[in-house]
């Protein structure tokens, strides 16, 4: 009895399909391999660590912190003066938009502190970016890492506009 070539042909077809699939996956997932990834841009922070930034705040922005502390007491707000406290950050940032009565003459100190808090918030953003930086093709096999973090990274100063300008 003669053997049929079907098992051999089936193996050849299956191996061809596997090879083609692997090739397509490599092309699709190649940006996920660490050797080919672009480095992540991080946001500017006021110091290398949170602790250093807190010391800077206490020395360079002491007057603004005292003014804000008095303001919080005057409106019976019992929020802690803590750079990591989101509500405190929100209150300080809101003072950058408009100062209450009696604080107008301290605008320069307050605005400098608002800018400092804005930079300080970047520690949290950078921590989130670092979590994405350690992801690799094993932990996110079907996602493009660069697309995943694109919305989190700062826009470079030399970036071109994404809007088309029209003459109207």
Topology:
Blueprint lengths: L5 H24 L20 H11 L1 H13 L11 H10 L11 H14 L1 H12 L11 H6 L18
What characteristic shape results from the CA principal axes?
Answer: elongated
**N/C terminus separation:** 84 Å
User: What average pLDDT do the residues reach?
Assistant: 75
Number of helices: 7
Q: What structural class is derived from the secondary structure elements?
A: mainly alpha
SSE run: HHHHHHH
Q: Mind summarizing the main beta sheet?
A: none
β-strand amount: under 5%
Low-confidence segments, given as residue ranges, are: none
Gyration radius over CA: 27 Å
Helix content: 40-55%
Let me know the number of strands: 0
Sum up the structure in keywords.
168 residues; mainly alpha; 7 helices
Describe this structure in words.
- 9% of the residues are buried.
- The protein is elongated and about 80 Å long.
- The longest helix is centred in the first third of the chain and has 24 residues.
- The mean pLDDT is 75.
- Helix content is 54%, strand content 0%.
- Among the domains are: 71 residues, no CATH class; 32 residues, no CATH class.
- The protein has 168 residues and is mainly alpha-helical.
- Helix 3 crosses helix 5 and helix 4 packs across helix 5.
- It is built from 7 helices and no strands.
- The termini are far apart.
């Amino acid at each position: 009895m003669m053997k049929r070539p079907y098992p051999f042909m089936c193996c050849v077809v299956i191996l061809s399909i596997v090879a083609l699939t692997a090739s397509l996956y490599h092309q699709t997932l190649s940006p996920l391999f660490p050797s080919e990834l672009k480095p992540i841009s991080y946001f500017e922070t006021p110091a290398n660590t949170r602790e250093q930034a807190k010391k800077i705040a206490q020395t360079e922005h002491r007057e603004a912190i005292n003014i804000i502390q008095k303001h919080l007491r005057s409106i019976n707000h019992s929020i802690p003066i803590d750079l990591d406290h989101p509500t405190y950050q929100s209150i300080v940032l809101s003072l950058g938009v408009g100062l209450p009565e009696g604080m107008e003459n301290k605008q320069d100190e307050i605005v400098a502190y608002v800018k400092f808090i804005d930079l300080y918030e970047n520690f949290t953003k950078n921590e989130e970016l670092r979590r994405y930086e350690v992801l690799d093709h094993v932990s996110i096999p079907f996602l493009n890492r660069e697309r995943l973090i694109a919305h989190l990274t700062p826009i470079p100063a030399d970036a071109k506009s994404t809007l088309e300008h029209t003459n109207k």
